[in-house]
Amino acid sequence: MGTRSSSEAFERALLPHLDAAYNLARWLTRNGDDAEDVVQEAFVRALRFFGGFHGGNARAWLLTIVRNACYDWLRRNRPAEAHDELDEEVHGPSEPSPTAEDLLVEQVDRVRVQRALEELPPAFREVLILREFEGLSYKEIAEVAGVKMGTVMSRLARARDALQRQLTADAGKR
To answer: Which range of residues forms the domain containing residue 123?
Structure first.
């Protein structure tokens, strides 16, 4: 394949997913400028390895690269955050109460939600963003994150619970 045709194929396959790439990077880095840098790095990586992409889900393929670029960036720039452990006692399930979705449906203001999301460990933020904002299936999230589907479901449940607890705690401070 010629350079021009491979460049056009790259653009056709991946440019439609630029917003999703930025969105994931923005939530994982928690900064727009840093997200732009990460997405640029991810697209350079994607271009370098595009010859190895043999069709399939271009969005999941790109988001996998973005995710990896985010964690590489976090390891270089915020090492403590990149290695946040998921403490089951802190991030484990709590007693049943309204879900994060219920709170969001009740039009919790965006600033509170953003702040609560940013308080979550990166592994929790990523599954919430990929599922709730980007609409990826559990299987696609597992592919992007490089984990088993059961791990995705578990992280998603714990992330929703942690988000709910954070929003509930914030509401109690008002």
So the answer is: 85-172
pLDDT at 144 exceeding the cut of 80: yes
C-beta separation of 156 from 131 below 8 A = yes
The one-letter amino acid code at 119 reads E
Q: Cα–Cα distance between 134 and 131 in angstroms, integer?
A: 6
Burial of 100 (0-12, 13-18, 19+ CB in 10 A): buried
Residue 162, pLDDT > 80, answer yes
The helix/strand/coil state of 147 is coil
CATH number at residue 138: 1.10.10.10
Taking the C-alpha atoms of residue 129 and residue 87, their distance in angstroms, rounded to an integer, is 20
159-to-90, 134, 137, 143 alpha-carbon distances in Å: 11, 16, 16, 18
Residue 10: C-alpha distances to residues 3, 38, 60, 132 (Å):
10, 18, 14, 27
Q: State the DSSP code for 15.
A: G
Lookup result for tokens 């999230």: 141
